[in-house]
Amino acid sequence: MTVRSALRIAVAPGPADRRRLLGMAAGVAVGVMLAALLWAGFTGLGDRSERSTWVQPQTMSSGQMWEPGRTLADDEIAARGLSTVFAGHAIDVLYVYGAESPAMDIPGTREGVPAGTSWVSPALASLIEQYPRDELGDRFGTVRGELPDRVLAGPDALVAVVGVDESQVNEQFIVVSELTGYRYTSETYEILAVLGAVAVLIPVAMLLGVVTSFGSVDRSARMRAFHLLGATAADRARFAAVEAGGVGLVGTIVGLLLAWVAAIPVSFVTINGSRLFPSDLRLEPGELLVAVVVVPLIFAAVAAIRAARADAQPSSVRDRQEKPLGVWRVFVLAAGVLLLWASFSGIVPMFYGLVAGFVLTAMGIVAVGPMITHGIARIAHKRARSAEGLMAYARIQRHPRQIFRAVSGVVIAVFLVSLFMAGVTSVREGAVVRGEGELASDVLIVGLDNPATTGTISAAQEAALVDAVAAVEQVPGVTGLARIYLGSEYQGLSTKADLASVGVESTADVSVVKAFPSDGPVVMGASDESVAGLLPSSLFVATADATARERVRTVLSEHANVVNSGVTLTEFEAISDTQAREYRTLAILGVLVAAGVSAVALAAATVSAVRDRRRTLGLMRLTGMPFRTLKGIMFREAVVPLAAAVALAAIIGYGVGAMIIFGLSSGGRSVTPPPLEYYVVIVATLAMSLLAVVAAFPAARRATSGEVTRFE
């Protein structure tokens, strides 16, 4: 049998078989689309990180700290990355010295960055045009041009490269000969990115597995017919390979096209305050070519192997009871949990141990599921009081693997919901909690670079520090200023008069202000004598309104000894909460995608199971069995395995999530009880699963109709 003959036979069947092939191609297209988006997104996040972290030269191990009087080489610049805030938005600023016409490449700057000029991102340029210069624009000097997309995290990124003169350079600058980013902030983020991609790929792989077995009984019957007509084993394998490979090729091409189009709406998801570029979610040309070649070959190989194995099986054993389930399935789950524990204990490398342990745990849940399904069906069969119950539970006992395989994607989705929700509901241990009567939430907290806190300070540095404080006092709209000095045991000190000027009143002998974000030190009220001769290490600045607050930040940006241009507690919490909400939204979206894919796989598996038994079920309908009995059988075959494994998946998922968060943070974070969103997503996942079964009822009615049965 030639390939042309096999192809002609594959595309020549009747309308029912064409619908089967179309369903297989659609399933492949959906699976390939999601896999392409996930793979491109995983690699794109690393590229995105590189495009956003080059403005942080302090993290580059190859650089040297600036020393006064140093002469820069032609291929060197002095650089310092800082973050400023405007209207609640964080702006990344890279200050550079010696960049008038440098030999080295400063990303996105085509004509150098002389002192007093800057290059800004398009989003920041638009923001500068909307507000007075003394509120924002003066922080960046004269804008020479806009940074291109290739050096930005996304279209909403707020980034600026600002040139400074030597008088603004201090020991916080680093001398570098190149500016490059890094793919991930830490190994922790890389691990979480890998786990997220693998987590959503598992249901996709299950969907493709269901698609490859769609209509397996029809295919086996045709293979036996070919055998009776004289086709050899090679002919049958060639036919199966051509059919599956052709369907796989069409589905792959359609899936890649859908992924290319879907990258546009998916790119509107925000991460770290900015949307994605559509190119971050699209495969490279080489990757597209590999997908077009590899996916159809895999489908063809699997189909050929299945056809070869099916040749030795007579038609009378198609409904043979499955082999007993082995105890090894429990050990797979236990091995996954133990591997996760070992990765945190240092017994195995963390990165590989976590990824392998996560995959083994997910596989273990799928492996244990049929055992629990069989046990529940056995108990339910003894108590069944209806025909549909007896038939459904009996079949579940005979085919626990096949029955559970149909809902395994949904079970994994519940596992992922629990795992990710454990991550997004984690909280930091030991955070300072602000109470009433303490620092107002709209007071600016400004960090200053005071060398005297760690060593000696020169006269020039002392004068610059005094000038910075004086400049803040002269800004119109400043209503109060508290100088914070560093006391013993890294505790902040300030006079009660200064604290009162920013709204902190206390009648006690000593007032305590828990003002700094996260785990920062408290500020103790002190006498004027105890702080005499000290220089401040930070400031509390009270302003009349938001406009004055932005003017203070603009003034502070002109002073090199400012660690940050000031942030209020409200802004700090809002920025942190925004990032947390973004990651929570991203996790929920990923889980819902996995649940949706699993629901589609469940619907396909349900229809496939009915088609494989359509002769038996059709004959029963001809003898008088109502269709509602068939619906009851289908419903029970889906509900029993779901009930069997959903609770187990939820408990293990939340436990594994807590273990991962606790281990990656070295005990610094703990998991809180599940929020309302958790239960909403669980209910939505189960609802999609039940709707998938209901959606399969019309196909089941057609497959078991009297006309089809008489034709069979």
- Mean pLDDT across every amino acid position: 76
> With helices defined by DSSP (H or I, 4 residues minimum), what is the helix count?
20
Number of domains: 4
What general form does the structure show? elongated
What proportion of the residues form beta strands (DSSP E)? 5-15%
N- to C-terminal distance: 27 Å
**Strand line-up in the sheet with most strands:** 1-7-2-3-6-4-5
Enumerate the spans where pLDDT stays under 50 for 5 or more consecutive residues.
311-317, 427-437, 517-521
Largest sheet: 7 strands, mixed
The amount of helix comes to 55-70%
SSE layout and pairing:
Layout: H1 3-11, H2 15-53, E1 64-65, E2 77-86, E3 89-97, E4 117-120, H3 122-130, E5 142-146, E6 159-163, E7 174-176, H4 187-212, H5 216-228, H6 233-266, E8 270-271, E9 274-275, H7 285-310, H8 328-345, H9 350-383, H10 387-398, H11 400-424, E10 426-428, E11 444-447, H12 459-473, E12 478-486, E13 492-495, H13 496-501, E14 512-513, E15 523-526, E16 538-543, H14 546-556, H15 569-612, H16 614-622, H17 627-664, E17 669-671, H18 676-695, H19 697-703, H20 706-711
Parallel strand pairs: 3-6, 4-5, 13-15
Antiparallel strand pairs: 1-7, 2-3, 2-7, 4-6, 8-9, 10-17, 11-16, 12-13, 12-16, 14-15
Helix pairs in contact: 1-6, 2-4, 2-6, 2-15, 4-9, 4-11, 4-15, 6-7, 8-9, 8-17, 9-10, 9-11, 9-17, 10-17, 11-15, 11-17, 11-18, 15-18
